[in-house]
Amino acid sequence: MTGAYALQTVDTELTADAVEWCPLRGLRHLLACGTYQLRRADEPADPQSKEVEEPQIRLGRLFLYSFNENKSTHPLVEVQRKDTSAILDMKWCHIPVAGHALLGLADASGSIQLLRLAESEKSGHMLEPLSSLALEQHCLALSLDWSTGKTGRTRDQPLKIISSDSIGQLHLLMVNETGSRLQKVASWQAHQFEAWIAAFNYWHTEIVYSGGDDGLLRGWDTRAPGRFLFTSMRHSMGVCSIQSSPHREHVLATGSYDEHILLWDTRNMKQPLADTPVQGGVWRIKWHPFHHHLLLAACMHSGFKILNCQKAMEKKQEATVLASHTLPNSLVYGADWSWLLFHSLQLAPSRPCPSNLGTKTADLKGASELPGPSCECMEDNDGEGYGVKPLTEDSRENGTWLQATATTMRDCGQSPEEANSAFSLLATCSFYDHALHLWEWEGN
């Protein structure tokens, strides 16, 4: 029985909705988490008062964590927190820009922000503001995507961001080679209501896709903005997640409030390759950085799921759900695979957990202090189970939660040999319980 372990839970204090592992080599131990919190206006002291209540304020906070496998009870250590406007989406650029990692934020002020990762004597690394661009007045920036999702970008290819907003528009931005300047290239009306998501075709970055609250999935050629290439009504509710496969040129995944994940061949957008129900609205989907057939989905009240899309892509069958995790009293909005892979070693003696992790982890809460995950074991078509195993008190006390799996962490490249690992690290975050969860998943 292969399985997954809940390694750690962190209290993010504000409701968390976005989580992203850094994809750059040497920095893949860094994890960013974004939050979105409504601060409700105080009610008037006099119930008969005719004073107009102040509008609700959307608060946000950006956290930066460092993963350290040697800290066995709390491997995630907070290294920075930064108050911002509420964060609705964020993505790391997949390549260094002027020698630095860049993190893009889409926020409730209607802006796209770029932050640069800099070295810090105190904490090792720190995100600092680099540039910002307001998309439109009186709107929320809802999503963003970088044009760098597939490896092999050449220097003559422009560095671009596509973003969507709450009034149904898409915005194409250009980033200069220092990252210090964002320029709006084009904006156009894409949807009647909120444009929940926008994403590049990573193989042909002049093509972008969008999903809206109107239930439409659309494709666009940014060389002729405003004229859609196709419109699909295959989803029955709002389309809120899209990602182009970085491994296979013509594969696209989409998710919706209708609780279905669709896989598409972009050469024929009339009919999806596969339709998989996941029992929850699909807010985010992420292809595994190395294993081309694995898809991670943040499914709101249905927790998160790991799908095997191999047969779905090859035989047009429903994708197989390998693992399903539900979290009580929460909505899972963020999920991401780590680019750090675990490679099996010979069994090593267990090491005791440190009793005092120091002041850096004083703000972190262990898994026992927040509601624990409810886990469900799924089986693939061959009957082999992919279990889900919460971290037990025995394994925590004996310090064996990593050693028992006989694994070690590597900052892997993208060669098939380096990616040949059965273990993956992933993170999810959720509303209501304001929690960030760290998981280790074992699968084939």
UniProtKB/TrEMBL annotation:
Catalytic activity field: diphthine methyl ester-[translation elongation factor 2] + H2O = diphthine-[translation elongation factor 2] + methanol + H(+)
Residues that span the membrane, as ranges: none
Stored InterPro entries: Diphthine_MTase, WD40/YVTN_repeat-like_dom_sf, WD40_repeat_CS, WD40_repeat_dom_sf, WD40_rpt
Keywords associated with the record: Hydrolase, Repeat, WD repeat
Pfam families listed in its UniProt record: WD40
EC numbers: 3.1.1.97
GO BP annotation list: protein histidyl modification to diphthamide
One GO term describing the cellular component: cytoplasm
This protein's pathway: Protein modification; peptidyl-diphthamide biosynthesis
Superkingdom of this protein's organism: Eukaryota
Keyword Repeat: yes
WD repeats: 232-274
Entry's Gene Ontology molecular function annotations: diphthine methylesterase activity
Record's subunit section: Interacts with INCA1.
Family per similarity comment: Belongs to the DPH7 family.
Record protein name field: Diphthine methyltransferase
Organism (species): Callithrix jacchus (White-tufted-ear marmoset)
Gene: WDR85
